[in-house]
Specification:
Elements lengths: L2 H8 L2 E4 L6 E2 L4 H14 L9 H7 L4 H16 L6 E2 L1 H12 L4 E4 L4 H8 L7 E2 L12 H10 L6 E5 L2 H9 L4 E3 L4
Parallel strand pairs: 1-4, 1-6, 4-5, 6-7
Antiparallel strand pairs: 2-3
Helix pairs in contact: 1-5, 2-4
């Protein structure tokens, strides 16, 4: 067993990313990003809205706009639900932890519907999605929210992900990070 895998399996608390870490979800992000940016520009956004996460940050204090962004997001992700493939290393580590009753959470920039569809009754708790935060990854807000809900401390917690967003969120929250490819 690799040192990284051993650290994930033995950590007191673990937080997993969803897309790219537990599942590869085939979503065409470019048209979604373009539609979201256009919607934000209609609402007065300036050139700083260039990514999906920027659109959500712009909509943080505009519930109606956020709900319209979510509708676009859900529509795009739903096209990949039935084609999503498990990431073997991530799923194996998560299932092991869940079978042992070890506290295991998910932090994702995907929608709640996608998380529910793919994770079903696996037993992750909590699951924090793009809908639960004002500032998406790489901001550490989602990790801080999970730590609070789990009653977890930074010491003893590990984040498993697959992107710089995940790595930077973990770093910002002062939580060790393991890339799923290391498992």
């Amino acid at each position: 067993m690799s040192d990284a895998r051993d650290r994930v399996l033995s950590a007191r608390w673990a937080i997993f990313d969803l897309d790219g870490t537990l599942f590869d979800i085939p979503v065409d992000w470019k048209p979604l990003r373009e539609r979201m940016i256009a919607l934000c520009r209609e609402e007065g956004a300036i050139e700083s809205v260039v990514k999906i996460r920027d659109a959500y940050e712009f909509a943080a204090d505009r519930p109606d706009l956020k709900s319209r962004l979510l509708a676009l997001h859900i529509e795009a992700e739903s096209l990949g639900w039935d084609k999503a493939k498990e990431v073997a290393a991530g799923c194996s580590a998560a299932r092991y932890r869940l079978r042992k009753g070890l506290p295991t959470a998910v932090l994702t920039m995907n929608t709640r519907q996608t998380a529910q569809r793919l994770l079903g009754d696996w037993g992750f708790s909590p699951i924090v999605t793009i809908e639960d935060v004002l500032r998406p990854k790489p901001h550490p807000e989602g990790i801080d929210l999970i730590l609070g809900k789990m009653g977890a401390g930074r010491f003893g917690t590990i984040m498993v992900g697959n992107s710089d967003y995940d790595r930077n969120a973990a770093s910002g929250a002062a939580v060790p990070y393991i890339d799923v490819t290391e498992l």
